[in-house]
Amino acid sequence: MKAKTQENSKKILEISNLKKYFLNKNSVNKAVDNVSFSVSEGEIVGLIGESGSGKTSVARTITRFYENYNGFVTLDSKIISGNKISKKRLKHMRRNMQMIFQDPMASVNGQNNVYSILKEPLVVNGVIQEKVKRVLKSW
């Protein structure tokens, strides 16, 4: 059996020439400027850089927290960038791509219990309520 390599693995996520600029009073902040990379099936990628280098801006742009950007983003060979994206494609994107914050205080609402935190994405993504109860009950 031949081992999968980056060359023969399916590309799950492709980012090409991504740009996100913020306008200030008298200047333009180029938070993301011409970023390109891809993630293949089974590959783990870390986005590493100094504080203020644009890591979070890249992630927020890719996951569409930020609008009005230039460049192309594809997820599972489907374009998810641009102003006009169908609700179906947006739902697919949100089911398959999410941000994980490094700061635990930004990741988890301390006022929620573990059950509520684990239940929310399952309910939002249409998992049957009985299945949620069964999984969380056994946990």
Automatic annotation (TrEMBL):
<dbReference type="InterPro" id="IPR050319">
    <property type="entry name" value="ABC_transp_ATP-bind"/>
</dbReference>
<dbReference type="InterPro" id="IPR003439">
    <property type="entry name" value="ABC_transporter-like_ATP-bd"/>
</dbReference>
<dbReference type="InterPro" id="IPR027417">
    <property type="entry name" value="P-loop_NTPase"/>
</dbReference>
<dbReference type="GO" id="GO:0016887">
    <property type="term" value="F:ATP hydrolysis activity"/>
</dbReference>
<keyword id="KW-0547">Nucleotide-binding</keyword>
<dbReference type="Pfam" id="PF00005">
    <property type="entry name" value="ABC_tran"/>
</dbReference>
<dbReference type="GO" id="GO:0005524">
    <property type="term" value="F:ATP binding"/>
</dbReference>
<keyword id="KW-0378">Hydrolase</keyword>
<keyword id="KW-0067">ATP-binding</keyword>
<feature type="domain" description="ABC transporter">
    <location>
        <begin position="33"/>
        <end position="108"/>
    </location>
</feature>
<protein>
    <submittedName>
        <fullName>ABC-type dipeptide/oligopeptide/nickel transport system ATP-binding protein (DppD/OppD)</fullName>
        <ecNumber>3.6.3.-</ecNumber>
    </submittedName>
</protein>
<keyword id="KW-0813">Transport</keyword>
